[in-house]
Amino acid sequence: MTDFFQDLKPLRFDPDGADLAFRHYDPDETLMGKRMEDHLRFAVAYWHSFAWPGGDPFGGQTFQRPWFGDTMELARLKADVAFEMFDLLGVPFFCWHDADIRPEGDSFAESRRNLEEMTDYLMDKMEGRKTKLLWGTANLFSHRRFMAGAATNPDPEIFAWSAATVKLCMDATRKMGGQNYVLWGGREGYETLLNTDLKRERTQAGRFLQMAVEYKHKIGFEGAILIEPKPQEPTKHQYDYDVATVYGFLKDFGLENEVKVNVEQGHAILAGHSFEHELALAAALDIFGSIDMNRNDYQSGWDTDQFPNNVPEVALAYYEVLKAGGFTTGGTNFDARLRRQSLDPVDLVAAHAGAMDVCARGLKAAAAMLEDGTLETMRAERYAGWDAPEGKALLESDLESIAASVEADGIDPQPRSGRQEILESIVNRFV
User: Fold this and answer.
1) Could you say which residues bind Mg(2+) 2 here (predicted)?
2) The predicted structure's pLDDT at residue 56
């Protein structure tokens, strides 16, 4: 045991009790025939919780953590503290980048050895605990070598380094029993078209992903391969802009049946969409996999990665998740970080506890809306004409036949109300 969290005790469901308790998250509560914990599948992000120093674009480190540093001893201390927090929260999963869990070596071989050693150390920490690995991924964006991207880099040797790193991370994820492997193209984009060959970079990215899928099958990794869409920041344009863009990319390289998406709330907003839009589209395209649950500050205009606190937004997101059949290998990863003024260890636990309560409250609202059925009934009524024989026949017809029929029938079609305000009021009954 470390003394980082001092006298904090494991949190419990206690709606009327102490401040540091779950008010809505009861892991054993049953909703739609499934335990709440099994619906939500919470995961803690290793990077924001234990590797992030508290900086922002205008200022550096504000956090003072006893494990900050580039030694294996400190990496092990970081893991000790991490699992103590997982125990306090009772979360079933966590997620990592390789750079979060091991120090950078002086060579690729040394970094590999560090990762392999920390993989074994984390597996020892997992032994006898409920917290398992939701997914692993490679950090191909922080080091200066990745300033022009990884898979899309103009230099072949950096492409090779990146591919080798992904191989190591996939090995570690499989060894640790991870249920997914994520490819996040943090810098897979461009700053200016003046020095960018779009076609070449897109081809490189496609082949890189194909290699990852090929390796998955070679090693017998049974988890899902996920791409996390992101529109911008830090680059001007990203090749994985949003769910629709990713789907087009997957289709182009024959991977639409091999790869799914990990959708983040903050990235959806940066792309000009709502979170529920991206989730609904992913489900419609059959590529829904997992979610990163966070939020942006809508006055800031950049990816602030804050813990969720808006129950109506979260409810609409989980409504789409439940409609899609819920998670299989995916889950709810808190890709969220403390504010840089939240310095104390208790802040880290309280932030996750509050976010878990917000998600639980949103999930309960979403389940109640689905079980009520009013929204789906009104949606079905709006499109009922397409289920009638005439509607079905229309899609099998042609322009000439349709034009002749419209003129012969002499119909003057009139619009019908979309009832948006009524629908919004229905949602408000539940949230």
Assistant:
1) 264, 267, 303, 305
2) 87
| Count of CA atoms in the C-beta half-sphere (13 A) of 146 | 21
For the chain, how many residues are written?
A: 431
100 an active-site residue? yes
* In the block, residue with structure tokens 């390289």: 253
Question: pTM of the full predicted structure?
Answer: 0.96
Residue 290: in which H helix or E strand, if any? Answer: strand 288-292
Over range 30-34, report the average pLDDT.
98
d(CA 51, CA 47): 5
| CA dist., res. 135 & res. 152, Å (int) | 23
DSSP summary character for residue 44: E
- Catalytic residue at 412? no
- Distance from C-alpha of 318 to C-alpha of 291, rounded to nearest angstrom: 10
Per-residue confidence at 7, pLDDT binned at 50, 70, 90? confident
Residues sharing a CB contact under 8 Å with residue 315, sequence separation 6 or more, in sequence order:
361, 362, 363, 365, 366, 369, 427, 430, 431
Binding residues for Mg(2+): 228, 264, 267, 292, 303, 305, 335
Write down all domains in the chain, each with its CATH number in brackets. Answer: 30-372 (3.20.20.150), 377-430 (no CATH)
Instruction: Pick the catalytic residue from 26, 98, 100, 240.
Output: 100
Catalytic residue among 97, 273, 277, 352: 97
At 375-393, the pLDDT tens digits run 999 999 999 999 999 999 9
Could you report how far apart the first and last alpha carbons of the chain are, in Å?
40
